[in-house]
Amino acid sequence: MSRKILFITTDQQRYDTVGANGGTLSRTPVIDQLAREGIRYERAQPTSVVCMPSRSSMLTGQFPSTHGAWMNGVPLAIDAPSVAETLHDAGYATALIGKAHFEPFMDPFGLYAENTLANLGVPTIEQDWFDGRRGVHRGFDYLEFATHGVMGALHYAKWMREQHSDVIRGFYQVVDADFNVNAAGGGDTNAPQVKYNAVPREWYHTDWVADRTIRWLEEQESDRDWFCWMSFPDPHHPWDPPKSEIGRVPWRDVPLPENYPQSSSERESLLDQKARHWRLWYDGRLVSNYEAPAKWVPATMTADQVREVNAMNAVEVELIDEAIGRVLASIERKGWGDDVDVIFTSDHGELQGDFGLLFKGPYHVDGLMRLPLIWRPARTTAPTPSVVHAPVSLVSLAATFLEIAGQKAPSWVEGAVLPIDDVDASTRSFDATFTEWDSSIFGIDVHVRTIVTDDYLYTQYQPGTVHDGSEGELYVLSDDPWQRVNRFEDPAMALVRASLAEQLAAHESRAGERATPGVLMAPV
Amino acid sequence: MDALGVVPVASIRHERRIAADADAVWDVVRRPESIPLWFPGIVSCTVEGSHRVITTAMGLEIPEEILGNDDASRHFAYRITAPPYSFHLGVIDVIEVATNDSLCVYSTTALPDTLAMLIAGGTLGALGEIQRLAERSRVAS
Q1: Closest to A109 (Cβ–Cβ): which among B40, B84, B117?
Q2: Which of residues 484-513 of A touch B (CB under 8 A)?
Q3: In whole angstroms, how far apart are CA A407 and each of A228, A254, A404, A501?
Q4: Per-residue pLDDT tens for A326-377?
Q5: Coil, helix or strand for A18?
Q6: Which of A105, A109, A161 to mutate to test the interface with B (most CBs of B within 10 A)?
Q7: Chain A contact probe: residue of B86, B114, B115, B124 with most A CBs at under 10 A
Q8: pLDDT over 90 for what percent of chain A?
Q9: ipTM surpassing 0.85, yes or no?
Q10: Please, what is the end-to-end C-alpha distance for chain A in angstroms?
Q11: Is the pLDDT of residue A293 over 80?
Q12: Which residue of A has its CA nearest to B3?
């Protein structure tokens, strides 16, 4: 028997929403305890700041420019490499419960398994694998899906419509009549994507994901190794947690974020230092990506709206923490408490008021790029608790799962096993991470590459609709933790900039086989 | 509406070079009732005169009106007639390049523009099936 793996992801959760990382708005005692027992990463970065490319990197251990799912709406190739396939081959029972999103949600023709499995009523289906064999879908024996609400074809939405149709109207309508991300406001402040939801807590998707995970775990034989990816759709917008819970964090008591400039002149001054699409978006002159509401203008956002969004977000984070606690308790009841590695992270962050902005897009700053990441190794390994300060990337997750399972990483894995402490990080040269953005939708092309090192965050904008290839951003993290002062044009930083540009170029030209970039099939 | 007062309508075109005569390609698509055979995710349809209703694998029933079906120019045009589409035009053109060599172009123009992308995503798979069926018919003949 080897070590079992519980991989927990949330969606769009910032580093500073977790107590162990210094967050004070939400109480996260369960995640904090995992951090105390294990390894907490101070600077974990995604390969992409939107869901599909980032999640595909978790599964494949590859950067988006390698696996080919380069923007939301581009499906990961069905025969892309999958760490779940390798674990399945090694005898692991494999499950993904909650939000997958390797394939588009908007799928009127039912082209993707993620959208058809609930109707088929089977736990998985056979598909082509990377190595030419056929096997269970992306290596998972068991799949049960949920996303942000009750629209669509996924298991949770179907369950809600069939079992609890009387409360589904309480959820926020994620897209508007034009199938764009909805800008409609709600709550007390009319904040976008906020709604008081009358759904009972036990029927909300956070508890549903935990319930289904517990049920799957209980069905596993005691001596069977397993890999379970428990994937919560929250705290991604919409912010519509059960109304019964919102008293946990009264929004009027929520302080404004440290990086929320309170005057419009300060906001504009900060945004004007950055590449031009920042200010264009803020002013409502350009929405460069689908993930932000097309009909919402960030400049109209009030301080109270920021408070209310962050309060709702904090409530969702608390519900996730409690749901994780229930799952961990069920693992203890099964007698597996010492045998399970738990890894907790999120696919990308959320601006949550930083620079006067909300949601996400091609904006490579800590709000979107600095993530919670905690690895609590199985207690049987007698792990030494530590904090890793070196930059690490979620591209390392697949290699880490394989290491836990005692499997050799296949050649297609681009990431190295996560370091267990700073000495390990230094020895194995964890000194830089790379984040990619490519989008091309409705005539607007944006292409961004970012490197983060111990000291710097450096972004290059490649030629696109609003960038000519000369723009960039360079922040000195020690002096400027919120990335407010762009030193890209500072002559004193020329050598630093040249060195970082060289490292980015090396990333772009790295060796290895790349998948043919996928085709955009849907907005998301 | 843009600065010139024009409503931006999304128009997405996919095309496929097919190793078959244009007539063979056209023969795959020309019959309105044949669409479930070559459009992945359309599981059935009914045709009455110029009205067609398709049913997708997700259980959606989508009514359409056939606007043109011209053997001479190998041109098929149709539109979806129900919400959430406020406008839709689908066009398939089969163009002869040479013997056993043709170009099939499938265009989707629609409002809301997000929905154009969804239909166009499906047309990409449809072109693959049209190619497979046309090239298979060539081999069979």
Answers
A1: B40
A2: none
A3: 17, 46, 8, 35
A4: 999 999 999 999 999 999 999 999 999 999 999 999 999 999 999 999 999 9
A5: coil
A6: A109
A7: B114
A8: 99
A9: yes
A10: 40
A11: yes
A12: A285
The radius of gyration computed from the CA coordinates of chain B, to the nearest angstrom, equals 15
Would you say the pTM of this structure is higher than 0.95? yes
Q: Region A22-33: what's the mean pLDDT?
A: 98
What domains can you pick out in chain A, each with its CATH number?
Answer: 4-260+289-435 (3.40.720.10)
Q: Is A516 on the interface with B (CB under 8 A)?
A: no
Quick one: which H or E segment has residue A85? helix A83-89
Domains of chain B, earliest start first: 10-31+64-140 (3.30.530.20)
Rounded-to-integer distance, Cα B126 and Cα B121, Å: 9
- List pLDDT tens digits, range A187-239: 999 999 999 999 999 999 999 999 999 999 999 999 999 999 999 999 999 99
Q: In which residue ranges of chain B is pLDDT below 70? A: 1-8, 139-141
Q: Which amino acid, one-letter code, is at A19?
A: G
Question: In sequence order, which ranges of A127-273 are alpha helices (DSSP H)?
Answer: 155-163, 205-219, 264-272
Distance CA B28, CA A80 (A): 32
Peptide bond into A238 cis (omega under 30): yes
Task: Tell me the two tokens of residue A301.
Answer: 């956002």
Identify whether the C-beta of residue A355 lies closer than 8 Å to the C-beta of residue A266: no
Tell me, what amino acid is at A497? R
* Sequence-ordered strand ranges (E) for A362-487: 373-376, 386-393, 432-441, 444-453, 456-462, 472-476
For residue A387 the two structure tokens come to: 């904090």
Decide if pLDDT at A261 tops 80: yes
Residue A180 has pLDDT above 80, yes or no: yes
Q: Cβ distance A273 to A486 under 8 Å?
A: yes
